[in-house]
Amino acid sequence: MSKRLGIWAGAAAGAAALTLLGIPALAQDDPAAEPPPTEFVIGFVDLAQDARFDDRHAYYMVPVRPWGRPVAGAELGIADALITGAAIGVNFSLTAARGNDVAELVAAVEEWVAAGVGFVGVDLPAAQLIELSDAVADLPVVLFNVSAHDDELRGASCRANVVHTIPSHRMMTDAMMQFLVLHRWTNILVLAGPSEADQQIVTAVRQSANQFGARIIDVRDFVLGTDPRNREQNNVALMTNGNYDVVYVADSDGEFARYVPYETLNPRPVVGSAGLSALAWHWSWERQGAPQLNDRFEDVNFRFMDQYDWAAWAAVRAVVQSVLRSQSTEFGPVRDYLLGERMNLDGSKGNPMSVRSWDHQMRQGIIIATGNNSMQLAPVEGFLHQTNDLDTLGVDAPQSACQF
Amino acid sequence: MFRLTKRRFASAALVVGLAVGTALTSTPASAAGTGYIFISNERTHNVLVLDPANNFSVVASIPTSRRPRDLQINKAHTLLYVACGDDDVIDVIDIETLTVIDHIPTGRSPEMFVLNAEETQLFVSNEENSTAQVIEIADKIIVHEIPTGAEPEGVMLSPDGATLYVTSEIADMVHVVDVAAGVVTDNVIVGTRPRRFAIANNDAELWVSDELSGTVTIIDRATNRVIDQLQFLPPGFRQVDVTPVGILLSPDGQTMYVTMGRANHVAFVNVATRAIEGYTLVGSRAWGLALSGDQTQLYVTNGLSDDMSVIDLASRRNILTVPTGRVPHSIVVDNEPDV
Predict the structure, then answer these.
(1) By the 8 A CB rule, do B206 and B256 touch?
(2) Looking at residue B59, what DSSP letter applies?
(3) R_g (Cα) of chain B, nearest Å
(4) pLDDT for the residue numbered B149
(5) B87-98 pLDDT, tens per residue?
(6) What is the complex's ipTM, to 2 decimals?
(7) How far apart are CA A128 and CA A173, in angstroms?
(8) Contact by Cβ (8 Å): B104, B135
């Protein structure tokens, strides 16, 4: 029942003593005998123009998109690694590039890799992420996808040099479906937006409903607008007649979705892109050290940490953990630990996280949140998996279309 | 990241003149040795007082500052200190009157703390500003602040008072602090999300609970090297659900009690052989641990079922469950005073 792990060495002897207020450290070893810390630089790239982070608001101060860029999460990851680095003699730092197009970012990554950088956070839409990953496929570098939910990136279009710390659409719809099934709200009306991302969400909702035994009574396409001639597609009340338990809005933009709650013909809850949402992170999560993580982020950035910030933080944290546990700063051993089964990463949201071998998605809990409350952390109790309950969220190994 | 909170210093200094000595003027209380159980409840902002001699009936519910967590009782058993995370203070409860009589300001969000042997100083971990603070109780002044890894949690003072151990939940390490010099002199990498400490084997070993790796790491105190790591797995649970937090040495030094968190069990470990002898089922998310006054029972706080389990140590069976406030955190027993 119990097994003993092998004896392992503690931190490097004579690790850096830390002082405050100029109080001198105790003389232990000759400081001159200590090697200087090894520099370990983690990269981060994003685009100067990225519609997903367009910070204009629908109306004055109404947020429909993230409040800031995820690179802030990566910076917090570096700050959190300060003491770890001091103890093991590694100086972690971040280098960031913001390009006008992918070509500029490819050039930046190539330059970094030549200088020894092996791990790069990437905040790009799916198409540009694939472009970048293909351009650097032959280099010793691992890219972290921190913002593209596309299931395709974990499926047929997967890339061996990409690790996804942001959950896929499917993981998020699976999490929501577990919540709905728990509440027996299993008759679902889907309101679907016109964009490709919206259609990806609809596909994921269908798959999740199938997986967990819910029923989609109809999928109705909406159009944003007030044109009375098109009211069958833009008037929420007219779109929501029928018998259903819950309305699932698939609106990646969020502008239509925010008009749906309290406008439905029947008094039914609204989930998905408005009302109750499945997210990689929410500021209201208050267990497993989440309040401290949120406070550290807010202290520096003066805004809430959102799921993309969290994914960037988790990427840096995964690299730092891999350096710590592999006791190496070389690309090979660190990457092997990162992708290996022994990874046991604390994401401040439940069970320890690791990277799925079949599609390089980081397995993780998903927070089911309203605007101001975290209702549940999925996997919801009772949804079990034969090896790791976190793998009830997202495409499991036997179904995966990914081939590295 | 390791900035000093000047505002806190200022507020701490201001109250010096107002309340100096209140914590020191209490006479040895007649209540000492009542056998009462004190339980801090994070969400009901109170310390519940139960009388085990009277069927665990509620003696009092003491309102505290917000989010009370760790509890420490002084040697004379006259004062109970309560770290209150949301109000950035340590409340002082007079055990005779069962009321809060004083507040000691700390840095942000105090969780775990210890008293020094002379009971003149508090060592407090501050999760929010990633430091361990040394606070003079009489003056209510933060006299020193030691930077730690992010989210410092467990603190323990060595029996000789010379060394302070602090866990960092985010950095996965134990900081070894020279108390006299006030600096970190060594760091020991342990399991994932280290939480609490116990000293065992005639003070030679430091045991650390690792919440997310489901382990207890054992450190040789002489060399600060990890010498062993125990992996827990109560029957019917998966490794990922085993989240050890509370850890307590039996009075005879032979058995270590470890709460399994979300695995809802207490483990019994033979300190000499390091064999896990068995598990006892308790409530949901078991964290806090304390021995009854007569040392025949083990009390366990269950944070997600809002109750306390009572384990008979002779049979190692869970014999009773007692309701508490919301999210019970820590537990201490007013047994016979130490002095």
Answers:
(1) no
(2) E
(3) 19
(4) 83
(5) 999 999 999 999
(6) 0.72
(7) 24
(8) yes
> How many structural domains are present in chain A?
2
Verify that A47 and A147 share a domain, yes or no: yes
Q: DSSP letter at A353?
A: B
**Which residue do the tokens 């400081």 mark?**
A31
Has residue A371 been placed in a domain?
no
Peptide bond into B105 cis (omega under 30): no
CB contact under 8 A, A289 and B169: yes
Model confidence over B283-324: pLDDT tens digits?
999 999 999 989 999 999 999 999 999 999 999 999 999 999
- Inter-chain contact B275–A2, Cβ cutoff 8 Å? yes
Within 8 A by CB and 6+ apart from A264, the residues are A236, A237, A240, A247, A270
Residue A25 contacts B, CB cutoff 8 Å: yes
Flag whether residue A2 sits within 8 Å of chain B, measured between CB atoms. yes
Backbone angles phi, psi at A379, to 5 degrees: -65, 135
Query: Does residue A299 lie within any of the structural domains?
Result: yes
Same domain, A131 and A273: no
Contact (CB<8Å) B229/A23: no
Q: Are residues A201 and A256 in the same domain?
A: yes
Asked if residue B81 lies in contact with residue B72, where contact means CB atoms within 8 angstroms, the answer is: yes
Residue A138 vs residues A110, A133, A153, A340, B173: alpha-carbon distances, Å: 10, 9, 19, 21, 36
Burial code (b: 16+ CB inside 10 Å, e: under 16) for A218-247 equals ebbbbeeeeeeeeeebbbbeebbeeebbbb
pTM greater than 0.95: no
B196 touches chain A (CB under 8 A): no
Which of A2, A82, A83 is the closest to B276 by Cβ?
A2
Does residue A297 share a domain with residue A262? no
Tokens of B14: 């201001």
Average pLDDT over residues B33-57: 94
What contacts A210, CB < 8 A, 6 or more positions away? none
**Residue A2 is assigned to a structural domain of this protein:** no
Count of helix runs (H) and strand runs (E) in chain B: 2, 28
Domain that holds residue A159: 38-167+286-364
Taking only the tens place, the pLDDT of each residue in B235-284 is 999 888 899 999 999 999 999 999 999 999 999 999 999 999 999 999 99
Residue ranges of alpha helices (H) inside A189-288 are 196-212, 231-234, 236-239
